[in-house]
Design goal:
heterodimer, A: 109 residues, mainly alpha, B: 344 residues, alpha/beta, TIM Barrel, five-stranded parallel sheet, two-stranded antiparallel ribbon, 11 helices, 44% helix
Chain lengths: 109, 344
């Protein structure tokens, strides 16, 4: 069922900008058109690009927003997981709680 | 003889119906919503579009380019791998989840509180292995506080005895316990790095259950304005187990999705999740039309994102552990196309 929804109507998660639009919905309560436009403006792309895996693969690479490993494609020299979330917070101009916790815990004792 | 088109009933079973029968069910589903919830019927254009979706011979149906919505996936993951953190990675990487949700298999804030250090540690670990936003979710589940599961006299036993005042007092006392447990869990989760909180199936035990949720949601947004608050409803109608409870001057009992949206918005929710129940003996066309008629006024008025519950037995998706792809994709597309929803 999860995959069916993803294919029928989902933005695509990390393959696209679905997670970025989701962040604006959950933290700022933005409705979908507003959230998509906000993210597109921040990324410097079109709204249509946000759901396009090809466009977003390159944009996520350029901005360090994290990409998924697919079969033999890995990105060990690029930001991933927590590292990527640092960049997402900066690009979207929102605080991300796990990033703030990481900074707090990784800083000098 | 009219061509018979494969489609589904609300229990997922495969049936064949003519185009005229499907069209009649679309009208009947819309009218059922009108009759119960006093909403506007679907327009002729809506019915025509739904008819196209439900009479298509294609096995799969999908939204147009650019119309994709955010999938929040409450309760993401399954129990089969026995690795909740890994399940989040799987939903992120393999199911296209835009948001994920860590949860405990005893899906109740009361139960979670007893294992909170393990859940918060798991949440922290999950945050270090994922990128997409991560909710923590559980049910408010007010009934857990009544005898024999909790310390409060059981209001469901008091009411048949005519002890209405006692039943109401019991629920009011239970609200305090529930709010305390939810707050303890949320404080722990925010400290561990959660992105948002999901109050899932809010109102399952009626208006008192929903009131506790709204009060805690308000506190969360006031204390942590950057933490997401998703309130997913238990059902299309708030049961009046208490009957007199209000939130900001509005009685909660008897609220349909639009009234629920208003209450959740007032409480500071950042995502509202309406739930419309499925009638298992009616066709998928009937159920989806009814769901669309109930949700359309919600999205027309909403100022916060609306993520419709579209899982087994709600939102037009059949009540079965394995919702068929043909049925789920049609319900998914219909909700997006007709209701302009923000997510699922």
């Amino acid at each position: 069922m999860a995959s069916t929804h993803a294919l029928a109507s989902g933005m695509g998660g990390m393959r696209t900008a679905g997670d970025l639009v989701a962040r604006m919905q959950m933290t700022r309560g933005m409705r979908l058109p507003q959230a998509k436009q906000y993210v597109a403006d921040k990324l410097g792309c079109s709204v249509l690009d946000l759901s396009d895996t090809i466009a977003m693969h390159d944009l996520r690479r350029d901005l360090g927003l994290g990409r998924m490993q697919v079969q033999d494609l890995t990105y060990p020299e690029h930001p991933g997981n927590m590292e990527a979330k640092f960049h997402i917070a900066e690009v979207l101009d929102i605080p991300i709680n796990s990033v703030e916790c990481f900074k707090r815990n990784a800083g000098p004792m | 003889m009219a061509q018979r088109i494969p489609t589904r009933l609300g229990d997922g079973s495969l049936v064949e119906m003519t185009r005229a029968e499907i069209e009649a069910d679309l009208h009947a589903g819309s009218e059922a919503a009108v009759k119960r919830a006093k909403v506007e019927p679907l327009t002729e254009d809506d019915i025509a579009h739904l008819l196209d979706i439900f009479t298509s011979p294609a096995r799969f149906s999908a939204v147009d380019y650019g119309d994709e919505v955010v999938l929040s996936f409450d309760g993401s993951g399954n129990a089969d791998i026995s690795s909740p953190v890994l399940e989040q990675v799987i939903y992120q990487n393999h199911h296209g989840a835009d948001m994920i949700e860590l949860w405990h298999h005893d899906y109740s804030y009361k139960a979670v509180r007893t294992v909170l250090p393990f859940q918060t540690q798991m949440l922290k670990d999950a945050q270090q292995q994922t990128v997409v936003p991560l909710n923590y979710g559980a049910m408010p589940d007010l009934g857990r506080y009544s005898v024999p599961d909790g310390p409060i006299p059981n209001w469901s036993e008091l009411m048949p005895l005519g002890k209405i005042a006692e039943a109401r007092a019991a629920q009011e006392e239970a609200i305090g316990h529930l709010e305390h447990d939810m707050w303890c869990v949320i404080e722990g989760m925010v400290g561990a790095g959660v992105d948002g909180i999901d109050f899932d199936t809010a109102g399952a035990a009626g208006d008192a259950d929903l009131l506790a949720t709204l009060r805690v949601a308000r506190r969360v947004r006031d204390r942590w304005p950057d933490i997401g608050v998703e309130i997913g409803q238990a059902a299309e109608l708030v049961l009046g187990m208490h009957g007199e409870l209000e939130y900001e001057g509005t009685r909660l009992a008897g609220q349909w999705p639009l009234g629920q949206l208003r209450a959740c918005t007032a409480a500071g929710a950042t995502i509202f999740g309406p739930a419309v129940n499925v009638n298992t003996t009616k066709s998928l066309a009937w159920n989806t039309a009814r769901a669309c008629a109930l949700i359309k006024p919600v999205t027309a008025e909403a100022t916060i994102p609306v993520h419709v519950n579209a899982g087994m037995g709600v939102g037009g998706v059949p009540m079965t552990p394995y919702p068929p792809v043909d049925a789920t994709s049609r319900a998914s597309r219909a909700l997006v196309d007709i209701c302009n929803i923000d997510g699922l």
